[in-house]
Amino acid sequence: MAMGATGPVPKPESKGVSSAIVIIPARMAAQRLPGKPLADIGGLPMIVRALRQAEAADVGPVVVAAGDAEIVQAIESHGGRAVLTDPVLPSGSDRVRAALQAVDPDGRFDAVINLQGDMPFVDPATLAAVARLMAEESGCDIGTAVASEASVDDRNNPDVVKAVLAMTATDRGRALYFTRSTLYGDAPVWRHIGIYGYRRSALDRFCSAEPSPLERREKLEQLRALEMGLSIWAAVVNEAPMSVDNPADLEAVRASLSS
């Protein structure tokens, strides 16, 4: 249950892209980098930088689904909107769902885009591509994004999640599987980017289901959706954004500001 909100978010005028809202889940208790959302990056908390990138995408209103009051305070002090969600929610997807129910109880938004708060410099065009995919592919329950491998080393790296796609155009494809395993062959590997656009009904179904066998095996929650029969489509974007999972990532992101 969402614990704090200041009324429904107004629905913007349609721009022909998508009736979407962007929600960024964040909590302080990250295992490998506690306090991560408020980590300073060039004078701004990480979560505020993610908020600014989402706002620049201009696909709909942006709300932070915060697991802690400190995050709400940081967002509101920088002019953003945040909802305080139950701290015991098990995942970011559950936090997004709780915030959506709080700010849009009447279901005016057709799609919700889940942006991770640890992508402080995500390209706004990537969010726009996911929103456009949701608007144009009627059979898409969940939209996401992929980028071409950065090097052949990505194929063997279990930390790089690979998407196996049935391409329907040069800029999109339907997901057949996601894996951490090595992929063989001469074709480039698609690196999965952890941004998700959900139809509201798909988000409700997904959050109501138990973790699936393949999800547990690969430690990839999107496999639960595939096992449930939900259709996942991926937009091809130029590059994968830097994400912050540990102290070394944080230093790399900080260094990128001066490079």
Description of the molecule:
This protein is an alpha/beta fold. The protein folds into two domains: 104 residues, Alpha-Beta Complex (Spore Coat Polysaccharide Biosynthesis Protein SpsA, Chain A), CATH 3.90.550; 105 residues, Spore Coat Polysaccharide Biosynthesis Protein SpsA, Chain A, CATH 3.90.550.10. The chain has eight helices and twelve strands. The strands form two sheets. Strands 8-11-9-10-12 form a five-stranded mixed barrel. The chain has a two-stranded antiparallel ribbon with strand order 3-4. Strand 5, helix 2 and strand 6 form a beta-alpha-beta unit. Helix 1 crosses helix 4. The chain is globular and about 50 Å long. The termini are far apart.
Q: Measured on Cα atoms, how large is the radius of gyration? A: 17 Å
CATH fold descriptor of the largest domain: Spore Coat Polysaccharide Biosynthesis Protein SpsA, Chain A
The major pleated sheet works out as: 5 strands, mixed, barrel
Let me know the average pLDDT: 92
CA(first)-CA(last) distance? 42 Å
Structural class: alpha/beta
Please identify the oligomeric state: single chain
Along the chain, the helix and strand elements come as EEEEHEHEHEHEEEEHHHEH
Unreliable sequence segments: 13-18
Number of strands: 12
β-sheet strand percentage: 25-35%
Percent range for helical residues? Answer: 25-40%
Instruction: Provide the domain count.
Output: 2
